[in-house]
Amino acid sequence: MQMTEKDFIPKIYSKTIESGSYTWSAPSNIALVKYWGKKAHQIPENPSVSFTLNNCKTTTKLSFSKKENLNSFSFEVFLDGEEKDDFKPKIETFFKRIEAYLPFLRYYHFKIETSNTFPHSSGIASSASGMSALALCLMSVEKELSEVISDEFFNQKASFLARLGSGSACRSIEGDLIVWGTHTEIDGSSDLFGIKYPFEVHQNFKNYQDTILLVDKGEKQVSSTIGHDLMHNHPFAQRRFEQAHANLSKFITIFKTGDLDTFVKLVESEALTLHSMMMTSMPYFILMKPNTLEIINKIWAYRNRTRSKICFTLDAGANVHVLYPESEKESVLEFIKNELVVYCQNGHYICDQIGFGANQIQL
Ligand code: DP6
């Protein structure tokens, strides 16, 4: 049976607790079919699929203690030990969105201590890993307050909550391949949470590598939230949403057969389509930088020269994710060092690979 929002509203909690703390570490993810465009309540306009990453992670410790005043939320946020008041509005919005599903939120004061394995200013989105780590900590509290919560429901609700923080965050709970959004050919797929990709995946995609080239570490000129909004009344939006469904169908075949040539074409087309949506919205904007294009051209030249299966993808920014099978690790890293590092800000890049999801950290 299809889960609905109501299934995530808890019954009365059977236990009471005064205070405690939980720590979770959650990874970032990189979409192959992109989520761009959403309806109310963080419902995506189209399904997406992503590789969960392994090294780019956020670790969050949530400490909580009972408070008297139930009129408002009470929390403080620290990044690398320093109080971060500018994170508060985003978390306040998150708490408001999830309050109906976690009624205990007003009963406690929370201390949120977070750190990322990648530099905060790197331009790598920390919202996916950050929101999923926080959602998992909150689920640990709910688990302690409740009689029984199955592992399956725990992950599903963590993903459901993370989505309400940031859409792509719902794909950062588990691994290694996650689908978010209803798709007719994928049983169990849901607009409300991410699920593990349920079908056969060819050996070619095991340990897939993602080297992230940091082209521009500055703040994004246009936030994802504004970008998603611009898909309303966008002249090409409906065709794009249909295309995403069709592309996900094609990926089902690619994952099964291990057809890397088709994989490369589809992954790059998705990345460029995402950026074309930005360039054709009103107002229009360009998030790629000259060095993003230099890198893309070098990758194409290398592929033509060597018949490598290397390809690129992009998020809503200038950084380039270079994807390649593990079997090419040595040669591609050599190519990156020799030809691509010059285009990275301060020569900075991050080596990552496909990962298997979040972990609770027992302190
Ligand atoms: C371009 O998840 O950051 O990375 O739901 O508004 O928080 P909000 O948006 P966000 O959008 C990211 C979109 C993307 C593509 C993707 O990850 O699928």
Describe this structure in words.
The protein has 363 residues and is of the alpha+beta class. The chain has helices at 88-98, 127-145, 151-165, 224-229, 237-257, 260-279, 290-306, 329-340, and strands at 19-33, 38-39, 43-44, 48-66, 74-79, 82-83, 108-116, 177-180, 194-196, 209-213, 311-314, 320-324, 349-353, 359-360. The strands form 3 sheets. Strands 1, 4, 5, 6, 7, 8, 9 and 14 form an 8-stranded mixed sheet that branches. A 4-stranded antiparallel sheet has the order 11-12-10-13. The protein has a two-stranded antiparallel sheet with strand order 2-3. The longest helix is centred in the C-terminal third of the chain and has 21 residues, at 237-257. The chain contains 8 helices and 14 strands. The structure holds ligand DP6.
Instruction: List the uncertain runs.
Output: none
Number of helices: 8
Rounded Rg: 20 Å
Strand content: 15-25%
Structural class, from secondary structure content?
alpha+beta
